Amino acid sequence: QGGVFEDIRIRHAQEIAELDLDGYAVGGLAVGESHEEMYRILDAVVPYLPVNKPTYLMGVGTPANILEAVDRGVDFFDCVYPTRNGRHGHVYTNQGKLNLFNAKYELDTRPIEEGCQCPVCRRYSRAYIRHLLKAREMLGMRLCVLHNLYFYNTMMAEIREAIEAGNYQEYKKRKLEGMQKISRN
Predict the structure, then answer these.
(1) Is-contact 127 105, C-beta < 8 A?
(2) pLDDT for 117-132, tens place per residue?
(3) Of 36, 43, 89, 182, which is most buried, counting CB atoms within 10 Å of its CB?
(4) Cα–Cα distance between 106 and 103 in angstroms, integer?
């Protein structure tokens, strides 16, 4: 930890790297810091951590945060976003985040995301899930959470595949551009 002070962060990273631990956590970057500050600190600190051990970024993130952090050498994450946002009717797609409480989904018979193979998208429509959410039925929140967890797990599998194939930069660019589609409409 150490806030957004690069010198403190680097010194701590150097000290804990000498302990030869099974992995290393970077924390304190999801408690009010901007995304730019988080990326700046990761750029400064991760190079001082052992490359042959996993690096864990605590409490982060959005799909975009994960893509940016992986690009900076982070291996794994934990975050409340997929579950907390799901409980509020927000679902992640490859075109961006949808708020299923919005009235435009009231009669929308499409799944949350076309082509998604999660159990929710294979069985339920946006309209039905919106109805459940509006009626305050727990099932609506659970379906949103289930979809979001599937989305995140699928994205992590795609990230691993892109790294192994040597085309992570192309994958990241395509994924980030795709997730901006809804916000541009």
Answers:
(1) yes
(2) 999 999 999 999 999 9
(3) 89
(4) 5
